[in-house]
Amino acid sequence: MCHPSDAEAWRHFDRIHPDFAGEPCTVRLGLCTDGFAQHGQYGRTYSCWPIILKSYNLPSGMCMSSDYIFLTIVIPGPSNPKHLIDIYWEPLIEVLQNLWHVGILMRQCEG
Prior knowledge:
The chain is α+β, with helices and mostly antiparallel strands. The chain has helices at about 10-15, 20, 60-65, 85-100, and strands spanning about 30-35, 35-40, 45-55, 70-75. It has a domain at about 30-100. The mean pLDDT is about 85. Pfam families: Transposase_21.
């Protein structure tokens, strides 16, 4: 698999949402998180959980480039947020759901 569009999950999504898949100007986003813990001074640990958004409408070399990855949330803390992560996700998920259900008007510019 060179690009997420090569995956079965992408094709499955296209089958479930044919109107979205058939529209050439749609934006496909991926939401990812992967936290890490680092050791601070005096043996204390500290965790950081970045939540990023990626655009998969780009060629494979670009969609994984840091130039096209958007840091949306950083969850700092003394440990893994585990069950509390929903509190941090909620505002972002609301915005993404609004984009899905309502959308925004875009004009295609060619040049």
